[in-house]
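Hey, I'm writing a tutorial for new members on how sequence and structure tokens pair up, and I'd like a real worked example in the thread rather than a made-up one. If someone can provide the structure for the chain below, I'll link this post from the tutorial.
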Amino acid sequence: MTSARTPSTYRVIQLGAPRDPDGFQTNEVVTGFDGLVMHHPRANQHAQMVDGRIIGGEPGRIHAIFGGEVEEIEMARPGRTQGLGPDQVLLKKDFILEDPDQPTGSAASRAVDVPSPVAGYIGRVNERQGLVDVYDRQDGDVIARIRHMHPIAVSEGQTVVYGESLGTQGRQQSGAVHVHMEVDTRYYQAYENYIGDLVSGRLPIQSQHRENVPPRPIVEDGKIRLGESDARVLDMQRTLDIEGYRAQGGSALPQDGVYRTSMQGAVLDFQRAHGVPQTGDIDLQTSRFAPREGGLGPPPFDPALRGREPLPLDVHPPGPRAPGHPSHPDHRPQLPELLPPPVNGRSAGVGGVGGTGSPDLDRLMQALVSGDERAVSTACEDIHASLIAQDTHARDRATQHAQSMEHGTALEQGAPARAL
């Protein structure tokens, strides 16, 4: 590790996305959060949304869309909560930290400290996995999960400040030296700022120069992402329900103000139909068409993070009202004749698999092609439920037919014959 007394800026790199059909990848310089590719870009390069589900990604993984891009996430699963709450979403990223005063790619260049992306409470340490979980408070939520460090510099039960060393970048359980970092989506902008601070030198390599460096204030960007709860999500859910949109699998959308993955396909379809960029985030452009109940103005922001500032924008500008929805503007005159391709595709003919005419079977075929065991299991459960419903319907029809036949026979026995 460098012994320089003056601050040194981390060199931040990553294994980039495949650049050709052979899947060739190279290390790339990271200049900011937006430049970070999705987690495991080669294995996940064919991930896409179909019928509200992400298919074609790395088997056994969970994905969602942020800013119009597919990303890998972590969530609680049946029998495998990962220490997360039922509605929590952690966004995964991989990157490599290097000391620029050492030869790039060398062991010496990568034996550097990993600064904490957030302030919090150390709720779990696993030396074998090189893992540290940072909680927002004791007995609170995991807000950051960092893996592959060795040795680890913190202990369970202590508190850490922003930028404090969690451990040394290593290869625990991974085989390659890098940082694996998962951050709660409620801290999305804090994650952006953290990567920016690494590449700019605001969080330098030497730990003594990171002392008393506060996190940058969060300026509200008007976007609500998966895993967040907000009054605007409830407005969105109400509007989607009124306009006939459904949750993943065709069920009714809950109206509770929580933005879950099951709702994202409907949001993307809504954005496309309303001429709004298909980001998957509930942004201000989207909120224009999902007004508050009673047609009132936008709800005040309820900051989840200290230092977040409200964004003083009017999301309900004056103008002609949409027919049937007088509380939001008429968007139709501005829409092009041909809408952009849908981010949320449909199962028939997607990914090289032809449509069967049954959405349930199409989803199963896509899941089998992708090798996603979780998607296969979900599709089988949907088909099972559908078959039960069809069997019940068939029995009802048979009963009605038998009753009709009995009624018809009785009429024939008591009625005079008629010539044909």
